[in-house]
UniProtKB/TrEMBL annotation:
Membrane association type: Multi-pass membrane protein
Protein name per its UniProtKB record: MMPL family transporter
Major location (coarse): membrane
Subcellular location: Cell membrane
Species for this entry: Microbispora triticiradicis
């Protein structure tokens, strides 16, 4: 593999302008394609085989227009003075309804002056608009058009706020400011790391081209498969971070070779042969982890996983082709435009002394370092047991959004459960008539549901056209994010009436089913990710213990990330710090508490596991590559660990700072889901690059000694020799490393 990558890198360096033109052309054409043909999204939250999915399928069969998830929009009306019943305001509302009926795709408009359409105060009402034939991927635009059609009410002093039937996954997230902040911070870190403007710009430029190609592909894929609206933001977060990091690792290696006097094209070849292999394996672990989400049983999560993997693949491809091309074009000019007070020149005489001293310090006292580090990591992970999972409703959204405003008005006018409506659909063994009074079976079903603890209201039943199903709209007493709402779902599903089978759908029921499905599949996903990642490391380093240990270390960093999420969101100790707005109390005022708990969507931990496991493996691969190179030269385990940490510490720290900066910048997004991902990813990478790679991994490798690189003979014969660490000619000369080996301990030996 190292030979193949070396030849590819050298070819790209010698044909740099051609490779650069092809990548820029690809990014431009794909971006133009999304402008011309659009970026369709489809937040299909269907979970085949679940009770909620069956309820939604029945709801589409013969119950009239709009009884379809996403096929209904509510216009919430609010008058701060008087009531909606006053003559002038009522007339304005009726004119608005006439305008709504003339709007394309509107099948039915239900007046707020119906039973259940007006709050007891008569100041808040709801116009329910049922749609037919509209593009369900453009529900946000449809809501805006309907709100504009209600202009007569707005001119009469009535606040009109649209509210569609979206779920937490149905977010139209626009990118921009956070990406700019992340890129600027990354540029500053690169300037400090390299000290030259040209070298700092190369990883930024490469990542931008990679993101352009990746987002273009994702946008066009939306015409073929269902692409969630959150896919582009997650792809940008991950792609930007790994794109800069991978280019940084290659560039650091190349500059070190140039400092030793190696010719430009030869330096590119050696860089691609060694660091390029590490990039390929590191990216492979990320893609494997994300692809394993297909086993979670939640199609939306599976799609998010492999779509995000597209951006990682683009980052790997640009790193092993575009970066060598740029290095070949720039030649010795890679160190041009040096800035004063920034960075320092690439060293000829070995690794950075600060990290080397840390490596030697850890190597002399591995047991103590191991014990202290484990205690600290356990303390960081301990709060994870308090993590609060549940639907993340619009009550936690940004105050400036219409979704948050509509949520608050509905809650103030009709109670918290009005935002957590359930759809109960009963299949009947025999045909029933839509009559007055209702069929006895329908009456029994309604009475049973009404008497369930936690049910506030049950609307009049509806019988479908063929008389085989009856639909009840159920309003619980609790908000969507309240755990008690899930208990109501279970109680309604437990209703048993001879001759009928009851199914419950709606946002709360759907998310509950998604959580149950993923909880049952989590051991499978975790097992597959850990096993395949360990297998990939085994192929890379031919060291079974190293592969198993690396997988375990990644799980440790995940614990710290989940602990941070529990502290910030579940315990609420940092909810305001990350920009979350407090929910509204029962009296309609904002809670005055400094801390408030925020639920975490049930699918977030599994998604974070896949992303973080892959990203954490990046630094493991680069550290192990350097340690293996040193061990191959010297045969001294302690010295190799110290040298490996010393030669990669500065680069890994810079890469981690960049990734933390990128993820932290995304916390500024108003969407709570993005904030959760930003916090979790930033904390995990920070812990992984410091405590784990700086202390825990070196300490365990010193203690294992030669067992690190032990492999049974039968397995050695069976595995292909991929040589991810590169050939001996790619290693730095042994001479400068000799004093380091002597200092590593009295048992160290000279090369």
């Amino acid at each position: 593999m190292s030979g193949l990558l070396g030849r590819l890198g050298e070819w790209c360096a010698r044909h740099g302008l051609l490779v650069l033109a092809l990548w820029v052309l690809a990014a431009g054409l794909l971006t133009a394609g999304t402008v011309v043909w659009g970026r369709p999204v489809n937040n299909n939250v269907a979970i085949p085989g679940t009770d909620a999915q069956r309820a939604h399928e029945l709801m589409r069969e013969g119950f009239g227009p709009g009884f379809d998830p996403g096929g209904t929009v509510q216009l919430v009306l609010y008058t701060p003075k008087g009531t909606l019943n006053e003559k002038a305001r009522k007339k304005a509302v009726e004119r608005s309804m006439d305008a709504l009926r003339r709007t394309p795709h509107v099948a039915q408009v239900e007046t707020p002056y119906r039973v259940g359409g007006m709050s007891p105060s008569l100041r808040i009402g709801v116009i329910t608009v049922r749609l037919r034939g509209q593009d369900t991927t453009k529900i946000a635009q449809t809501s805006e058009q309907l709100a504009a059609a209600a202009a007569p009410a707005a001119r009469a002093g009535i606040e009109v706020v649209p509210s569609d039937s979206s779920t937490p996954a149905d977010k139209q997230i626009k990118t921009g400011v956070s990406e700019v902040i992340g890129v600027v911070v990354a540029l500053l870190v690169l300037l400090f790391a390299f000290g030259t403007l040209v070298a700092a710009i190369v990883p930024i430029f490469t990542a931008i081209v990679s993101i352009g190609v990746g987002l273009g592909l994702i946008g066009l894929l939306g015409h073929i498969v269902d692409v969630p609206s959150t896919a582009s933001i997650l792809a940008t977060m991950i792609g930007l971070g790994v794109g800069i990091d991978y280019a940084l690792f290659l560039l650091s290696r190349h500059r070190a070779l140039l400092a030793r006097g190696v010719a430009v094209h030869e330096a590119v070849r050696r860089t691609a042969a060694s660091s390029g292999g590490a990039v390929l394996f590191a990216g492979g672990t990320v893609v494997i982890a994300l692809s394993a989400l297909m086993l979670a049983g939640f199609p939306l999560l599976a799609t998010l996983g492999w779509i995000t993997g597209v951006s990682v693949v683009c980052a790997v491809l640009t790193s092993i082709t575009l970066v060598p091309a740029l290095l070949g074009i720039l030649g010795q000019r890679i160190n041009a435009l040096r800035l004063p007070f920034f960075g320092r020149a690439a060293r000829r005489d070995g690794p950075a002394t600060g990290w080397t001293r840390l490596g030697l310090w850890v190597a002399r006292r591995p047991w103590r370092v191991l014990a202290v580090t484990v205690v600290v990591l356990v303390a960081l992970a301990a709060p994870a047991v308090t993590m609060k999972l549940g639907p993340l409703d619009d009550g936690y959204g940004d105050k400036g959004t219409s979704a948050r405003r509509a949520y608050e008005l509905i809650e103030a006018g009709f109670g918290p459960g009005a935002n957590a409506g359930l759809i109960a659909v009963a299949e009947t063994d025999e045909r029933i008539a839509d009559s007055t009074p209702p069929d006895p079976l329908v009456q029994v079903l309604r009475q049973r549901i009404e008497h369930i603890e936690g049910v506030a209201f049950v609307a009049a039943p509806m019988v479908n056209d063929d008389g085989r199903s009856v639909l009840f709209q159920v309003v619980p007493d609790y908000a969507p994010s309240d755990p008690r709402a899930l208990d109501v779902v279970k109680r309604v599903r437990a209703v048993q009436v001879p001759g009928a089978r009851l199914h419950v759908g709606g946002e709360v029921a759907g998310m509950a089913d998604a959580g149950d499905r993923m909880m049952s599949r989590t051991p499978l996903v975790v097992g597959v990710v850990v096993l395949l990642s360990a297998l990939l490391l085994l192929l890379a380093f031919r060291a079974p213990l190293v592969a198993v240990k690396a997988a375990v270390m990644n799980l440790v960093s995940l614990g710290a990330a989940f602990g941070a999420l529990a502290v910030v969101f579940s315990q609420g100790l940092g909810s305001r710090v990350v920009g979350m707005d407090p929910p509204v109390s029962a009296d309609g005022s904002y809670l005055a508490t400094l801390f408030f708990s925020v639920p975490i969507d049930t699918y977030v931990p599994l998604m974070l596991f896949a992303v973080l496991f892959g990203l954490s493996m990046d630094y493991e691969v680069f550290l192990l590559t350097s340690v293996r190179q040193a061990y191959t030269r010297s045969g001294d385990n302690r010295a190799a660990v110290a040298e490996g940490l010393g030669s990669t510490g500065r680069v890994i720290t810079s890469a981690a700072l960049i990734m933390v900066a990128v993820f932290t910048a995304f916390i500024a997004y108003p969407d709570p889901l993005v904030k959760v991902f930003g916090v979790g990813l930033a904390v995990a990478i920070a812990v992984d690059a410091t405590l784990i790679r700086g202390f825990l991994v070196p300490a365990t490798m010193v203690l294992l000694g030669r067992l690190n690189w032990w492999i049974p003979r039968w397995l050695d014969r069976l595995l292909p020799n991929l040589s991810v660490e590169g050939h001996e000619e790619d290693a730095p000369p042994a001479g400068p490393a000799e004093p380091l080996l002597v200092d590593a301990g009295r048992h160290a030996r000279r090369p």
